[in-house]
Amino acid sequence: MNSSPATRKRRISILGATGSIGRNTLDVMAHLGGREVFEVPAITGMGNIELLAAQARQTDAKFAVTADLARYHDLKSALAGSGIEVGAGPSALIEAGARDTDLLMAGIVGIAGLAPTLAAVANGANIALANKECLVSAGDLFHEAITKGGGELLPVDSEHNAIFQVLEENQRHAVDRIILTASGGPFRDYTREQMAAVTPETAAAHPNWSMGLKISIDSASMFNKALEMIEARHLFGMRPEQIEVIVHPQSIIHSMVGYTDGSVLAQLGAPDMRHAIGYAIAYPRRASLPVERLDFAKLAQLDFFAPDETRFPALGLARTAMQRGGLQGAVLNGAKEIALEAFIAGQIGFLEMADIVAATMDKLNDGRVALNIDDVYAADREARDVAQSVIANSARIAM
Ligand code: NDP
Ligand code: MG
């Protein structure tokens, strides 16, 4: 039964609730009033069943889904007696996305987030988008779907959230450039020789932001920034040459928009994802958030450096992908996932990740475009296969 609009709770579904973005989302929701204020039509996770069940009970979610089909019974028994509906596997994930909601937090990591997020888009939900792979791999399709669905797209990636905050809607025509800030990661000052020898553990230790494993290593290689360049292009309709990256080690300026009159507007804040998440949840209002306030007297200085693309070739690869267009974003992302997994598994060195992605992009540079989501998934699979064979070949040569 629907309660009256004045008392109806705000509905927020959370894809990837057990991850870094998901946990921060639930933290912000608890801070903003929890179950008194919010209803959770659907909540999803994958391997962390215990946490997913606890989150579902805590929020009194209507539908809890693990992406892992084999874990259905584990989740079912963890939620026994709760009355919460349980689902598992890819189709349940899509159903979770499709359930009626006011806002969907897209916090699944990787291309697996695309189909359930598009299901929410098609249902007209507003989307708080953390999953950058959706736009990197399927930017044009995603845009069409948003326009058709009628929901609002609210960027949660901190840089894009910053740009969203300072991009004046009625001055879009006067936007000259977008300047994405990058911390530079743990290897900002390393030589190429030092970078060649780093381990996944040191790569995962981000100096400023606390995030999931993959995105932390992607930050160290700047592949995260590469994905964000492509994400920015799709979110804000920019040409590739309008997207700049500047290394800003303190991560206080989260990004900037430059206008044709020379003005640059920036959004500043403590490096805490609850800021961008809270902004998306409260939008179009601003909520009171439990994030640290900046004390400018204590901020000794803000530094800026041009990124070194010989040590961080990922940025150049993003530009290539944007210029080539079509499915090259999906290829870059798919190849990057395989290279990242190979690095985490100790099969390849840190710098080889970019070589593998470059070789895969060149091999699959055939001008194809995505007509539907299946084309995107096919390009992703093909890129993964090609990247695997590039890794296998280079291992053979090294033997
Ligand atoms: P995490 O690895 O911390 O969490 C990922 C979430 O997705 C978990 O709930 C995980 O479940 C679930 N998951 C993992 N694999 C699959 C799959 N194949 N199918 C369905 N669900 C899956 O990632 P983050 O929270 O760090 O990142 C989420 C997204 O947000 C990424 O796209 C990232 O780039 C983006 N982002 C993250 C930021 C951050 O601060 N963390 C900042 C900006 C963007 P389980 O843990 O139960 O296995
Ligand atoms: Mg970011």
In words, what does this structure look like?
With 399 residues, the protein is α/β, with parallel strands linked by helices. α4 packs parallel to α5, α11 runs parallel beside α13 and α14 crosses α16. The longest helix has 26 residues. It binds NADPH dihydro-nicotinamide-adenine-dinucleotide phosphate and magnesium ion. The site of magnesium ion (MG) has 4 residues, from α7.
State the gist of this model.
With 399 residues, the chain is α/β, with parallel strands linked by helices. Helix content is 46%, strand content 14%. The strands form 3 sheets. The chain has a 5-stranded parallel beta sheet, sandwiched between helices. A 4-stranded mixed beta sheet has the order 10-9-11-12, with helices on one face.
Features:
single chain; 399 residues; alpha/beta; Rossmann fold; Rna Polymerase Sigma Factor, Chain: A; 2 domains; five-stranded parallel sheet; four-stranded mixed sheet; 16 helices; 12 strands; 14% strand; globular; binds NADPH dihydro-nicotinamide-adenine-dinucleotide phosphate; binds magnesium ion
Task: Give the domain tally.
Answer: 2
CATH class of the largest domain: Mainly Alpha
Beta-strand residue percentage: 5-15%
- Backbone shape: globular
- According to DSSP, the number of beta strands is 12
Give the neighbour order of strands across the main sheet. Answer: 2-1-6-7-8
Structural class of the helix and strand makeup? alpha/beta
> From the coordinates shown, what is the CATH architecture of the largest domain?
Orthogonal Bundle
Ligands bound to this protein structure: NADPH dihydro-nicotinamide-adenine-dinucleotide phosphate, magnesium ion
The N- to C-terminal Cα distance equals 67 Å
Largest sheet: 5 strands, parallel
In the CATH hierarchy, the third-tier topology of the largest domain is known as Rna Polymerase Sigma Factor, Chain: A
In the predicted model, the low-confidence regions spanning at least 5 consecutive residues are: none
How do the SSEs run, as a string of H and E?
EHEEHEHEHEHEHEHEHHHHEEEHHHHH
